[in-house]
What does this fold into?
Amino acid sequence: MSGITAPEAEVEAALASVRARIASRCRTVGRDPQDVTLIAVSKTHSAERICAALAAGQRHFGENRVQESQAKWPSLRATAPDATLHLIGPLQTNKTADAIALFDTIHTLDRPRLAEKLAEEMLRQGRRTSCFVQINTGREPQKAGIDPSDADAFIAACRTTWNVPIEGLMCIPPVNENPALHFAFLRDIAKRNGLSRLSMGMSDDFETAIDFGATHIRVGSAIFGAREVQAD
Ligand SMILES: *Cc1c(COP(=O)(O)O)cnc(C)c1O
It folds into this structure.
């Protein structure tokens, strides 16, 4: 009987395929695949599927909700102490303490009040959590992120006023636009601010993101399959 595939085998094969595509694209554009961190976006997916990815050697994971991560990750972490956890979803100021306690990197620093709170919490917990500033490259009113015209001033304030460790920039291009324009735009903002890390590219466009210098790609469905819609 065929047709029933163990999720473990599926995840392992999908991961291998994504890694091969990263390597191939890097070869094409003359980049070192080691310079592209694959973040497996495991939001909504069960601990079993995440374990399958861990067993296949995956170590960087992305989640978009603090509460869901608090439920899933402490026990997973116990089995894989070297796993690195990235927060890729919006962060409410009242969850800052939990986020600093749990995540290694925050990709969604998107407003001054949050920078202030993150700085406070890092000091309180004695942690230096690296952050990416999310830029709203498409200037979409419903989307989080710093307006591109405010980016330089915000990054400067993160460095001098709040002393938040800024590692790079992150964007989520508008759905119906050519992502390449947004990736190039983000790269330019990073460059003029002396930032070398770019968190950009998802299942549908990570190869294009690699062309434009992505150092962190956030890939969910291409690894774990389709997601159930998240309840609020
Ligand atoms: C869910 C999510 C991803 C992964 O999306 P896929 O299309 O499933 O690869 C990447 N980045 C962010 C910010 C997300 O919320």
Summary: The mean pLDDT is 95. The pocket of pyridoxal-5'-phosphate is lined by residues 41, 43, 64, 88-89, 172, 202-204, 218-222 (CB under 6 Å). The radius of gyration is 17 Å. Strands lie at 37-41, 60-63, 84-87, 105-109, 130-134, 166-170, 197-199, 216-219.
